[in-house]
Amino acid sequence: MLTFLGTRGEIALRSRRHYRHSALLVRHGAARIMVDCGADWRGRLGAVAPTAIVLTHAHPDHAAGLAEGAPCSVYATATTLALLARYPIAHRRKVPLGRPVRIGGVSFRAFPVQHSIRAPAVGYRIRIAGRSCFYLPDVAELPDVPTALRGVSVYIGDGATVRRSLVRSKNGALIGHAAIATQLDWCERAGVTRAVFTHCGSAIVRGDARRLDALVRQLGREHGIAGSLACDGDRLSLDD
Question: What is the pLDDT of residue 213?
Fold first, then answer.
């Protein structure tokens, strides 16, 4: 079972639907694995009681909740762990790129993506009991879409913007946020039939929820995909 603990991006705006920084809780048996831990979660991890924390990258809205340490092991790429060297994290575990790591009976495989030069990001293909999702809350470009999304039943992507690209080039690399419409195209090419978007940007957080939900559903239908926006507290089963 997946629970969206937070669905807000790194913006000042909040709403009831999108209040805390984007984070996902993966529950399997006794495991409670928190994916990302932004500044909103500083001092609040007791309410989540994670048995492990997995990070996509070192930006504050994904990692600053660990500024006072963590009650469990923290898994991330070597680059991300190095960027968080000042944090008093007692148990650091390196996640290799392209090879699965098992945490509490759940498989996490990290795929590098383009999003930031200073804080390189990854997306995770998460496999639970034979079913897979792909968690990618921050992305400008996903290299090798067919490989990354192979066998994935649900794509959980970047909801910073619906149609307008927030991607730009810097020093030969792409940074920023791909539009939901672009990510739906990736899903269509890979044969993914369901997409849920988190890490919501200002236009979504302050916008008309009913109209935006309908727009994302319509964009999804144009690609043959069930598309939706995630809200804080939403639950998702990979068996649905």
Answer: 94
